[in-house]
Amino acid sequence: MHTIRATVPESKTQVTLHHHGLQRYELSLHGRLEPGWAGRLSNGLAQRKINIMRVEAARSAGWKWRSTIDLDFFTAAIKPDTIDFVSLMQAPTAPVTAPETLLIDDYQMERSTRCDGSLYLELSGPDRIGLLSSLLNTFSLYSLFPAEMLVETQRNRVFDRFWLKGLGGSTPSEEATVAIRERMQECVQLKRRAVA
């Protein structure tokens, strides 16, 4: 097993990359991660053709996170040890002004007491490189951001769970809840039309 470690002193973020054989790696991120880090990181990985296979991430006090991300570099356009993951998490991204095309098979949504009041969203559908980035960008259009997420890919299918919060860690508004429900329903209908 090959391990690459880095700590960024000014942000106190610990970054560890473990090689698990073939083209599979596990990225661990612990410490302060700025709001929007997951969207910027997933966008940067998608641009480099790196597939995110699994994510287990949860925010604790303030902006401190514990995250484990399984990566597949099979189609990657870059070597794992040349990536500055902290820079990817801090990179500016172009603002998303319109919902991205998402194809999902099914979803469930409900209010949750987890994370001090959140919106729980569970979805399944076909995987593709950049899917997580597209989902996080879509959530951000409605000022929703994950406080916790469990993302899994098995046999080219995703089974993702998110506990979403509003701006500043607030409980999601009714307007945002209705808007994201409508958006998820549109995504299900797009998928059904694509199959028909």
Task: Please characterize this protein's 3D structure.
It is a single chain. The chain is 26% helix and 38% strand. The protein has 196 residues and is of the alpha+beta class. It folds into two domains: 88 residues, Alpha-Beta Plaits (2-Layer Sandwich), CATH 3.30.70; 90 residues, Alpha-Beta Plaits. A nine-stranded antiparallel sheet has the order 1-2-3-5-4-8-9-7-6, covered by helices on one side. 32% of the residues are buried.
Which regions are unreliable across 5 or more consecutive residues at pLDDT < 50? none
The major β-sheet equals: 9 strands, antiparallel
Structural class: alpha+beta
Number of helices: 4
Task: Specify the oligomeric state.
Answer: single chain
| General form | globular
CATH superfamily of the largest domain: ACT domain
As a percent range, the share of strand residues is 35-45%
H and E string: EEEHEEHEEHEEH
DSSP helix fraction: 25-40%
Q: In total, how many domains does the architecture comprise?
A: 2
CATH class of the largest domain: Alpha Beta
Q: Report the radius of gyration as a whole number of Å.
A: 16 Å
Distance between the termini: 46 Å
* Reported CATH architecture of the largest domain: 2-Layer Sandwich
Q: Output mean pLDDT.
A: 89
The total strand number stands at 9
Reading side by side through the largest sheet, how are the strands ordered?
Answer: 1-2-3-5-4-8-9-7-6
CATH level 3 topology of the largest domain: Alpha-Beta Plaits
